[in-house]
Design goal:
six-stranded parallel beta sheet; binds nicotinamide-adenine-dinucleotide; 14 helices; alpha/beta; three-stranded mixed beta sheet
Length: 296
Amino acid sequence: MTAVAFLGLGNMGGPMANNLIAAGHEVTGFDLSEEALARLEVAGGIREGDIATAVRAADVVVTMLPAGGHVRDVYMKAEGVLANVKPGTLLIDSSTIDVDSARAVASAASEAGMLMVDAPVSGGTVGAAAGTLTFMVGGSEEAFAAAKPYLDIMGKTVVHAGGAGNGQAAKICNNMMLGIQMISVCEAFVLAEKLGLDHQKLYDISSTASGQCWSLTSYCPVPGPLPTSPANRGYQPGFAAAMMLKDLKLSQQAARAEGAKTPLGAQASALYQQYCEKGNGDFDFSAIIEMLRNEV
Ligand code: NAD
């Protein structure tokens, strides 16, 4: 049994912490939300009133926070993680954040003598609850090897993507592809509708032809061809459009910083921005087809 401190017990962090508890670890948690702390206690965890107390006796700290600012703050402020953990504590940040923040926190952790990985996830709340997340991990070989047994409990696939920040790099590159591909599939269905081509026919043809991609065959944005996709249940997420916009913005922030040309990534980001500004951020990201049809 390992003493794990878990900070950020929201939609993702809550079920991830529960899986560590179920695997026999002692999980002490802190969150700004009273409800999140109450849920941890019900699941058999220990609640604490601040970060310093939660991490003091921990062998491993896991964080699952909203954005880069929260992660910098939680790790680097005086009452935060780095100033209060014991030497040799393993640090795992699974939040999806900008690469610069991930590298800045990893560098501060390394200076303080800690092993740290950035380990963002894909798989959503369903994967978090089922313990089937995919972890994309950035950090040294030593840090990856130390983190893997814990990531194996919370996930099914754990990939070492390279040095510090490379987990975040993998996550935003993947989701930039996903955002672009989803819009391309939606545009094709909208054009097919105008041309009198049946949804199922386009699906049957393109799913075995060169237009095939995950957005078509695993997440089809129109109801019918794939009964499991969010299109069949009123576009309830799934993966919310607001989350896709967050990841696309991170990809564009990184592209600007590195001078990478990503014109389709920029366009996908602008379209999701427009869609979310119309008040649709809580719908699944495949529902952007409704904006392309001028329905919303
Ligand atoms: P959430 O808003 O449900 O949870 C975040 C939690 O962090 C909240 O409970 C909040 O109170 C807590 N928090 C904020 N500041 C804190 C602080 N200073 N100290 C302690 N707790 C603090 O968000 P979520 O859906 O769980 O997402 C968490 C991360 O996972 C995000 O970076 C998100 O992009 C990423 N992610 C989410 C999904 C998803 O489907 N929800 C999928 C993949 C990745």
